[in-house]
Design a protein that fits this description.
The complex is a heterodimer of chains A (about 260) and B (about 325). By secondary structure, chain A is an alpha/beta fold. In chain A, a hairpin with a 4-residue loop joins β1 and β2. The radius of gyration of chain B is 19 Å and the shape is globular. The chains are: A alpha/beta (about 260), B alpha/beta (about 325).
């Protein structure tokens, strides 16, 4: 694993897309040069006591040549609201890259089943697979068309993108898992990564246990440090006593290895 | 910054302190369970620069820890209900303790027992390794049904501390809970029972409610509050114990840098431990060591020992 750094980094740009989601581009060369798909950073943009803890975010993309990386944050609490109002040129403290990078890309076809902010987690993986000329099919789900996250990036890197909305405002009207099942039936994918919905995780785990695909989950947890100190981000191991830590053992887990709520 | 021929006066300051006959090269260490010695942390600074190192509390037998959510942010602090997951004493002694021993600074081994027999067995086991310098008794974890009572009832505290002290030659550090009527009384009891030093304080028991889920925020319902939110309470605990006991105190509770650490030293702590702030700033302990050195140089002290308890006038 590449050595993480703790640095004061610079916010290069920010852009809201779609409403409620803020894309932050941050300059920190070492993180940009060493980050891999699946990894995350801990970010703190404040010296305050409230909020006080840094926040974990998946690295959406990293550009080693420009020394920048991108995050996409769902603005919903104190910390994310604060980060979403930082001006271009602001300093923020970043620790990373953290977590295990995905290193196996031997699948014949990969599906990414994502919803909401979960879409941000798989963009880096989609880009990596595209560079390796591996087929990657994305099922992008949201409640409605205006809440589709990281759509253009996923369209850029995916062999094909299938949209599912709950209200039918775009694409398939219904559950994204139906679209995934179709891809599997057609024999296009043998590996699935999912993020952003418990029901997706349950579905992928069932497929994995049935031997239909290799299923992987991007997990999150209440995380204080991101590097194994606080033991906050525990996830129950399947079939065993004890817990794995999202920050150290993940954030990407084989679905059959962990208990899904 | 030292220029050509100009000595940095800070380098002349003696930062070493004595905790129960064990020399700490400087007065800053991690609080148990908040800092891992591993490759990741080596990237930030070497743990060999610390005043002492300490493990996450171990029990005799493996424990899974509490169900998530285990942590919850609060104003100027956090609640945790980790529940001390551990692989048990055997794995600790085989896999972790030798790594701590090789670093250089004194090794404080933090232990806890679920029964009196376990306290005895674990203490003797750690002593038999010859790899510990101090034995810290975690008598005060608020997240264990068996934890808090050890240091909240005077008779129980006396029984555990005096029993362990009677069984081992290692100096024993009693880590006290602040959730008592008067912590100075508990400090006096620990001293009278043979404790060679005190760690104070452990976290305060508290809770938070997740208003979206309309349920307690932590899986364990209650947790221990730490961070700068509890610092004035912790400084008072150290200050009042210092007036009562002669044994050295390791002060902790919301240390986020040198200013807070110096506050504890002035209140009477001989060393300080950084806890939650290790999560926020991986350099917090290094920053604290350097800041104490700078403060002492600027204030004209040649040794950190000169300011221990100075706040009492």
């Amino acid at each position: 694993m590449a050595a993480p750094v703790y640095r004061k980094a610079i916010l290069v740009s920010r852009k809201e897309s779609p409403k409620g989601y803020m894309h932050l581009v941050i300059r920190e060369e070492q993180i940009a040069q060493t980050a891999g798909p699946g990894q995350f950073v801990m970010v703190r943009g404040w010296h305050t006591g409230d909020p006080i803890l840094p926040r974990p975010f998946d690295i959406v993309l990293a550009d080693p040549l420009k020394g920048i990386f991108r995050l996409c944050i769902k603005v919903e609490g104190k910390g994310t609201r604060f980060l979403s109002t930082l001006k271009k040129g602001s300093g923020l403290y970043v620790t990373g890259p953290l977590g295990k990078s995905i290193t196996e890309f031997d699948s014949a076809g990969t599906a990414l089943l994502v919803r909401g902010a979960g879409a941000a987690a798989v963009v880096f993986l989609a880009e990596t697979l595209a560079k390796l000329k591996k087929p990657v099919y994305t099922v992008l789900s949201a409640s409605t068309k205006s809440r589709l996250v990281c759509r253009s990036l996923l369209e850029q890197f995916s062999t094909d993108v299938f949209i599912a909305t709950d209200d039918g405002t775009e694409g398939y009207s219904g559950n994204g898992t139906d679209l995934l099942d179709k891809l599997i039936e057609e024999g296009k994918v043998d590996t699935v990564y999912t993020c952003g919905a418990h029901r997706f995780a349950r579905h992928v785990k069932a497929l994995d246990l049935a031997g239909k695909v290799r299923g992987y989950l991007f997990l999150e947890g209440n995380m204080g440090c991101g590097m194994g100190d606080c033991h906050g981000c525990a996830v129950k191991k399947e079939g065993k006593d004890g817990y794995a830590l999202v920050c150290m053992d993940g954030p990407v887990f084989r679905s059959r290895d962990v208990v899904v709520e | 910054m030292a220029g050509a021929g100009i000595e940095d006066p800070g380098q002349q300051v003696d930062l070493s302190v004595d905790i129960a006959g064990v020399r700490f090269p400087n007065p800053v260490m991690p609080a148990s369970g908040t800092y891992e010695v591993d490759e990741i942390h080596d990237n930030f600074f070497s743990p060999s620069e610390l005043g002492a190192v300490i493990n996450k509390t171990i029990f005799l037998h493996p424990r899974p820890g509490n169900p998530p959510p285990r942590i919850w942010e609060t104003p100027c602090g956090m609640l945790n209900a980790i529940g001390i997951p551990c692989d048990g004493a055997e794995a600790f002694i085989r896999d972790r303790l030798p790594i701590l021993r090789r670093l250089g600074p004194p090794v404080v081994v933090s232990i806890a027992g679920e029964t009196m027999d376990e306290w005895i067995e674990l203490s003797e086991l750690i002593e038999s390794t010859g790899m510990a310098d101090l034995l810290e008794l975690n008598l005060s974890c608020p997240n264990l049904s068996e934890g808090i009572p050890w240091s909240t009832e005077e008779k129980t505290l006396e029984r555990v501390v005096s029993t362990v002290v009677g069984r081992v030659k290692l100096p024993v550090v009693a880590k006290l809970s602040p959730v008592v009527t008067d912590i100075a009384d508990m400090a006096r009891t620990a001293e009278a029972s043979g404790a060679a030093a005190l760690s104070m304080i452990n976290t305060y028991k508290g809770m938070a409610i997740d208003i979206k889920k309309k349920r307690p925020a932590l899986g364990n319902i209650t947790g221990g509050l730490s961070g700068p939110a509890i610092r004035p309470l912790a400084v008072w605990a150290v200050y009042s114990a210092y007036e009562t006991v002669k044994i050295p105190i390791i002060g902790m509770g919301g240390v986020d840098g040198p200013t807070a650490a110096i506050e504890f030293l002035l209140a009477g702590a001989s060393a300080v431990a950084v806890g939650m702030y290790n999560f926020i700033d991986p350099f917090a302990m290094k920053r604290t060591i350097e800041g104490i050195r700078t403060y002492l140089a600027e204030e004209g002290y040649s040794s950190v020992r000169e300011i221990i308890g100075l706040g009492h006038g």
